[in-house]
Design brief:
The protein is of the alpha/beta class. It has a single domain, classed as UDP N-Acetylglucosamine Acyltransferase, domain 1. Helices cover 19% and strands 26% of the residues. The protein contains three helices and 19 strands. Strand 18 and strand 19 form a beta hairpin. It is flat and about 55 Å long. The N and C termini lie far apart (87 Å).
């Protein structure tokens, strides 16, 4: 019985050996001390700020390298891992408890809504690699899209212009423009707008 357990452990180690994991060079895009400084600022000056101080939070993000457009609304409970890898266009909204897991680039367009508790993930791991190698893929949310509550958006995904992603959906592949998409995995179910035409007598 003991030998069988040892054999099983050895097999598991060959499948996934986390002692061999290494971050790629310059993976974070900034020095370690700078990353820690941002996390300290985020947990204090950013997340403890009153809700109405949107300009203050936008200023802090810009200070740490984010590209933030005009009159962007970001709730204080939002979490941005590496702001220097984030772009947010004019008039967009980032809701309560949203996570921008920006190990890779996250590009959010103008007039976009990312609703509460959604998780935008720009990185993953190679589960076929013994060392569980990490990689990044850009996430793009195009202008005028709405990502509703509690949606997961995976690495490499593009959400098309004006698309709507229904609450609690999971998005693993890119979604077309101007469609309502729901489910796990999210799929297009109908057009966002019903364009009825009529002729006047």
């Amino acid at each position: 019985m003991r030998d069988e357990r040892l054999d099983s452990s050895e097999t598991e180690a060959r499948t996934q050996n986390l002692s061999a994991f290494r971050l790629p060079g310059n993976f974070r895009g900034r020095k370690g001390w700078y990353v820690q400084l941002w996390w300290l600022v985020q947990s204090t000056l950013f997340q403890c700020s009153p809700q109405f101080l949107y300009g203050w939070r936008n200023f802090l993000l810009r200070l740490f390298g984010a590209k933030v457009g005009r009159r962007v609304i970001i709730r204080p409970s939002a979490t941005i891992t590496y702001p220097w890898k984030v772009t947010i266009g004019d008039y967009s909204w980032i809701g309560d408890d949203v996570v921008l897991y920006s190990l890779g680039e996250i590009d959010i367009g103008a007039n976009v809504v990312v609703s509460q508790r959604s998780y935008i993930c720009a990185a993953s791991h190679d589960y076929e690699a013994v060392a569980f190698d990490i990689f990044t893929k850009r996430v793009t949310i195009e202008n005028e899209a709405w990502v509703a509550s509690d949606v997961f958006v995976g690495p490499g995904v593009t959400i098309g212009h004006g698309a709507v992603v229904g609450a609690r959906s999971s998005v693993f592949r890119s979604l077309p423009a101007m469609k309502v998409c729901v489910g796990n995995p999210a799929k297009s179910v109908r057009d966002r707008l019903k364009c009825a035409t009529s002729e006047n007598p």
